[in-house]
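Continuing the series of single-chain predictions for the mutant panel. This is the parent chain; the variants come on the following pages.
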Amino acid sequence: MKLSRIAGLYVPIVTILGYVFLFAPLVVLVIYSFNAGRSTVVWTGFSMDWYVQALNDRGLQRGLQVSAIVAVLSAIISTAIGTSAALAVIKRPFPAKNLFSTLLIAPLVLPEIVLAVGMLVATVWSGLALGYLTLVAGHVLVSVPFTFLIVRAAAATLDPRLDEAAADLGAHGGQIFMRVTLPLLLPAILSATLLSAIISFDNFVMSTFVSGVGTTPLPIQIYAMLKTGLTPKINALGTMLIGVNVLAILLVMGRYLKTVRGTGQ
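Parent structure:
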């Protein structure tokens, strides 16, 4: 009986410890974002001043703007490339298909710093100036494998008879894609887009090598601030980003629950 009880408690205890391990640093970050002093480990009182300073910091504003622009552009481009490649692999027979798929996911197994150095060398060789173009290109290189794998997994579950039925009803290739394939793949495409945007927004290694003057992303801007001393201003910025993420999750979950209730009725 004792062993069975211990075995029964093992899963919930490990689960709780896992959640504590994941979220305890975030809780500490949020708490010390309201600290009145400059210390991030010694509590001296409650204050909202660090939020005001974070919102008024020109460097953080510029870094956030650059990261948002690059994340949106790279997410759109990488999703378009990954979706096209996934549909080609699943729906079209062509020579060296396996080699093509392997090359697309190769950046996943290569160290990102190797990709970043290669991207920098290619940029210098081509004579391009470091800036938005190189940032977006580098982030697309890192994100395409994820979008390709997500959409390919979803496309592999589609019944090919749906395309044949649409063609028998007179639909051409574009209509089949827009009215049959795209609606079925839309959840996977949206997931791939969000994931690639998050990967781009958080990227540090590639951004370090391919960012130029005036296009410093937020992670590099925060790292530069750490060199001069860690203050609760960074905690405040992190707390605001956490709040945005939680709000986005609540909005998505709200729409999902409404959809589920609507289909249930």
